[in-house]
Amino acid sequence: MKRRDALSRVALLMGGTLSAPTMLAFLEGCKSANETSAGLTFPFSAEQKNLVSEIAEIIIPKTDTPGAKDAKVGEFIEMMLKDCYAGKDQDSFGAGLKELEDKNFLKATPAEQTTILTEMEKTSKEQMTKAGEEKKKYTEAGKEYTDASVPFFRLMKELTLLGYFTSEEGATKALEYVPVPGRYDGCIDLKPGQKAWAM
Amino acid sequence: MNLNIKATKQATFDAIVVGSGISGGWAAKELCEKGLKVAMLERGRDVKHITDYKTATLAPWEIDHRGRVTTVAKEEYWAGVRTGYTANGEHRYLFENDKANPYQETRKFDWIRAYHTGGRSLLWGRQSYRLNPKDFEANAKEGIGVDWPIRYNDIAPWYDYVEKFAGISGAKDGLDVLPDGQYLPPMQMNCVEKHVKGEIEKKFADRHFIMGRCAHLTQPQAFHTELGRAACQFRNMCMRGCPYGAYFSTQSSTLPAAQKTGNLTLINDSIVSEVIYDDKLGKVTGVRVINQNTLETKEYYAKIIFMNASAIASASILMNSKSKRFPNGLGNESDQLGRNIMDHHLAVGARSEVPGFEDKYYFGRRANGIYIPRYRNWGTDKRDYVRGFGYQGGASRDSWGRGVGMDGFGADFKKQLSEPGGWNMNIQGFGEMLPDEKNRFTLHATDKDKWGLPQVVFDAAYGDNEKKMRVDMMNDAAEMLEAAGMKNVSPYNDESKHPGIGIHEMGTARMGNDPKTSVLNKNNQVWGAENVYVTDGAFMTSASCVNPSLTYMAMTARAADHAVKELKKMNM
User: Fold this and answer.
1) Which terminus of chain A, N or C, has fewer Cβ atoms within 10 Å?
2) B-chain residue closest to A177, CA distance
């Protein structure tokens, strides 16, 4: 059911108005598989899937090693957002996607896309710094702090890197994957251009 | 023979071991090897060595959600998530679902449980250090808690004994604060750790930086190989269960040794609800068990009972074992059962970045780190708190994860992340927690778990001594890393953590010299019920600052030796 309807029904049951914090708590708590507030529902629409894959590919493109699309990072991101992230972060992601859709991101030139994403990265960094300072103020004063939602680009980047570098394509081609090392050599030379261990 | 007598005979053993974890496996092995018929009762399901390690050889892309915790799991493992790693996808199935099997907290306690064959011996950190002679004297000297009824010399030969069998990798460092033991070759330090060791030991004469001592086979001996164990392959996937049997666990070591004797009966799904004290005979005759699946109850009988269900569980069972003689729980005249909960406090230390070493790397994944043994309140050092702490840590090169905080994206960004990043060097303190009888758990008067047993209610918190100690733990770490030339040194002291997070909970049925103030005597026997031994973490009279499992192993072997000698003398 839509949150607004649910809220009004609870208000009736409780015989009157709900306080702002309670309403907030109720909003936070009411989450079903397809619940929406900023437009992020699962499964993603075809347009959303495409957009997410494209952004991931811009972050980790195919070079002489596979890219994000080869590693099916788009699908991975959708699954992780659905299963591992709180509603507020899902909504933040949804808002970011919408912003890019409104800018007609997929029709822009590669140079324009780079500019847009660079700007988004800058904004997300500023948001996180601000949230960090706010959290510090609260916790140093001994007060409880509910973490702010994670900005879109931070979510996008974090999940792209996780999805890519732990995928078979990423781990075995862009990194050096050695499932059973058999020994530990503590101090060896790193050869120029040598890839990092996958794990 | 009528059915009743036959049934009783089938349920009768020479000894019962409650729990198959890191100490229970030892009790079973020792008692079996000394010729006793032993029933090891495990409340959880069986997890067979190698074949039941579901995730042991899975690649990162095959792991549930690449190891990340799902929102559903966060809710189910509400205590587990507090550790930051036990609820991860690659091994979460080996930990207890806190929602399905809840406990209560008056003051918060992180109770991290694993109920299956082997218990947390499949999941432990494998760091293996001895207590030192002063650890055993500290309570008496400082007027804290009660005196240990034993001294280091009582346990020293047993440390030798268990270290050899378990296979402990380490070096004889010649430090009185961290007594040397019986070791297999130590693992290597990497380039940065060697450098930092040199710098710290140069600048701080009383501090030492050594390789961690861990229960991994770096050089299997014949008797290890005979049990089917092989050398550590440096995969660092230990908590999934080791297909090589390379680290010490019930499955890799004590269980096969016990099974070889033909004297062991492992019975799974058997939750011991109480120990049966026969008021007429004036002794314990056995245990009562509830099947975890069918809720059927059953009784098992034995001359000797070893309680190895883990500190909280063993004390709970004893608290639940009421009789005319022991109206307050078996051996609880002292009212110390469930009290004096200790753990090691951590989440305090410093991180840093390492200048240089760009052309150095390592091969293999070492499931062990460096160790800085206690130096505070040692020798002539005196602080505004008592006892001390050690540090565990190490150096490594940043991996692709650093990209999350880096600006940029695209081909160059990807290439950078395909190569190792800069080095970082981190050390985290493990501090001793003092015994305080106000730190305790009780059994809820009315709330039951799904087997009809009372829910555990915790009420514990760190005290002033711990808080004062943490100031040094943080500042000293930063000071040492700065002195070693590290940059961007970030000290931390997370005071939001709770007791239990060390997953070293202990002290709930402490040893002592006086039945009025302790639950166990100097042989780990329950006062007044001397055929019951408690040799899991419950017995600890003080916590020291070192990882405790090696001490549980040694005391178990010592107690088993005592129990069989007593049996032979017909004292039982």
Assistant:
1) N
2) B59
